[in-house]
Amino acid sequence: MPTRQKLISFVSAMKRKFGVLKSLGLVLVGILIIGGSVLTQALIKGVKQPLAPSKLSNYLPTGISASQAGQKARSKLSDRLTLQPEADRLRRRLGNRFIDSELDQSIIAGMLTIKGNLHPIQIIRTQIDDGENITVALDGQTPSLSWNHSEGPHVSGNRATGEQKLLIERIVLDSPDQFILAQLRGANYYTVARQVRPSEAGSSISYQGPVWDLVRLAEPMNNDQDKPDSPWRLFYLNTTSGLIDKIVSGEDGETVVAELFNWKKVGNELVPMQIKWARKGNPIMELNVNSVNFGTRK
């Protein structure tokens, strides 16, 4: 009996302890349920309330605001002028006029010599979406010669032909600016050769004259009506100065050479102050520049 009594007492004690543990378990479960509900409500509330602007800035790159992010992109024109490595290299060498809207127009004044006759000349080169719009005034008159890629050369509003067409195309296309801007009308660039020396230099180890990279620029073939008389031009890029020394083209089956001299800085812009054209070694015409002014197109 004593043993049985002890067993009954032990069982009763275990029941009491189990009841307490069960109660404690229920209390803990209740706490977890209530706490989970509160936490869920807090999360829902947080989702419904967007981050304050002051907190949003924490997620932007260091030092860049939302308004500044869009301003960091380069201009569309600048992007399009980096397609051809040789042209982009010359663009950087010449100055800022191809990427700075404050310098997108140049006014060139000088003297044009044709067959020994002197003609005061003013050339206005204005950058546009597909290259340049160019007007030329001779002998102090209002501008009568013009050119752009879509319309070609014109005289007093009429399509230019013959010698007048050739004259306009020489002034317009035998230009360092056109070597850059021809990209915008889809011209093709091809590096023909590098480190070229004059033929008379031969293989002489004592030669110390100019050495060139030759780049052929071919006009796009989708504009037959207004394409230049010469569908290509060969540019001689001086490997020392990085500038153009001469430009070779073809007119009526004959080779024409334009030589660029006396490069000078106007502000931060480099321009040739003299260009001489010759056919078979015989002078055709010569441009001597007196002044160049860069500014914003009107």
Explain this structure to me?
The chain has 298 residues and is of the alpha+beta class. The protein has two domains: 2-71; 76-295, outer membrane lipoprotein receptor (LolB), chain A (Clam), CATH 2.50.20. The chain is built from seven helices and 13 strands. Strands 6-5-4-3-2-1-13-12-11-10-9-8-7 form a 13-stranded antiparallel beta sheet. The protein starts with a helix and ends with a strand. The relative contact order is 0.11. Residues 17-62 and 64-74 have low confidence and may be disordered.
Key features of this structure:
outer membrane lipoprotein receptor (LolB), chain A; 298 residues; 7 helices; 13-stranded antiparallel β-sheet; alpha+beta; 13 strands
Q: Give the tally of structural domains.
A: 2
Strand order of the largest sheet: 6-5-4-3-2-1-13-12-11-10-9-8-7
Q: Report the C-alpha radius of gyration, rounded.
A: 39 Å
Give the % helix.
25-40%
Topology:
Blueprint: H1 2-48, H2 53-56, H3 66-71, H4 76-80, H5 85-94, E1 105-114, E2 117-128, E3 131-138, E4 145-148, E5 152-155, E6 158-159, H6 162-173, H7 176-181, E7 188-196, E8 212-218, E9 232-238, E10 244-251, E11 254-266, E12 269-279, E13 282-295
Antiparallel strand pairs: 1-2, 1-13, 2-3, 3-4, 4-5, 5-6, 7-8, 8-9, 9-10, 10-11, 11-12, 12-13
